[in-house]
Automatic annotation (TrEMBL):
It comes from Candidatus Daviesbacteria bacterium RIFCSPHIGHO2_02_FULL_43_12. This is HTH cro/C1-type domain-containing protein. Pfam families: Glucodextran_B, HTH_25. PANTHER family: CYTOSKELETON PROTEIN RODZ (PTHR34475:SF1), PTHR34475. Keywords: Membrane, Transmembrane, Transmembrane helix. InterPro entries: Bact_Cytoskel_RodZ, Ig-like_fold, Lambda_DNA-bd_dom_sf. Gene3D superfamilies: Immunoglobulins (2.60.40.10), lambda repressor-like DNA-binding domains (1.10.260.40). The chain crosses the membrane at residues 103-123. GO terms for molecular function: DNA binding. It comes from the Bacteria.
Length: 212
């Protein structure tokens, strides 16, 4: 959107008037006319006088003076309250290089300790509220074997206790377990129970049949 100064200048140039001719007809000094066309309100008198200049100038050019005054008020308020740029941003400080100091090292170590502590608490909480993991790879459910025994093997966490039909089974450092279990009949239930140190238990039941 054009400013009031641009509207006046465009109209003057369209009619091939010079500033000297405008000065002669409106009795407004040339330097004031120049300031008007440049919207340089700092070189103009108070708003009341500027409005008078606009009326005379616009009337001489055959323009709508009410429209010009409305544009003037908009432009004048914009110049009166320009966007504020803080000196801090206008003249930013030179960036300083990051320096490693004993205080920063200590702060980093303390932060790491705190993060590790809370991570441990979260892990322990999850272990407390969750059942232990348990994977049984053998036997398969509904499996049939030729002899009255079956291999029970799988994986869990190292600190979890494993029982197969109430019989304790050892777990290695990786959480793996493997044990041959005797079967007492042609149709057997093999129940694998994993119990965490917090007392949470998960069961997997497999049906195993022995050929007759």
């Amino acid at each position: 959107m054009k400013s009031v100064g641009q509207l006046l200048k465009d109209a003057r140039e369209a009619k091939f008037y010079t500033l000297e001719e405008i000065e002669k007809h409106t009795k407004i000094r040339k330097e004031l006319l120049t300031a008007l066309e440049k919207d340089d309100f700092s070189k103009l008198p108070p708003l009341t006088f500027i409005q008078g200049f606009i009326k005379n100038y616009g009337k001489f050019l055959g323009l709508d003076t009410e429209k010009l005054l409305a544009v003037l008020r908009r432009d004048y308020e914009t110049h009166k309250h320009p966007p504020v740029v803080l000196e801090t941003f206008a003249n930013p400080m030179h960036q300083t290089k990051f320096r490693i100091t004993p205080a920063r090292i200590l702060g980093a170590v303390i932060s790491l300790v705190i993060i590790t502590f809370f991570a441990y608490l979260w892990f322990e909480y999850r272990q407390f509220v969750s059942a232990p993991p348990l994977t049984v790879t053998s036997p398969q459910d509904q499996q049939t074997v030729d002899i009255p025994q079956v291999l029970v093997e799988g994986k869990t966490d190292p600190e979890v206790k494993i029982k197969v039909n109430d019989q304790d089974i050892s777990v290695d450092q990786e959480g793996k377990f493997s044990e041959e279990i005797k079967l007492s009949s042609s149709s057997n239930k093999v129940i694998i129970a994993a119990t965490s140190k917090f007392g949470k238990t998960v069961l997997i039941e497999r049906a195993v049949f022995v050929k007759k």
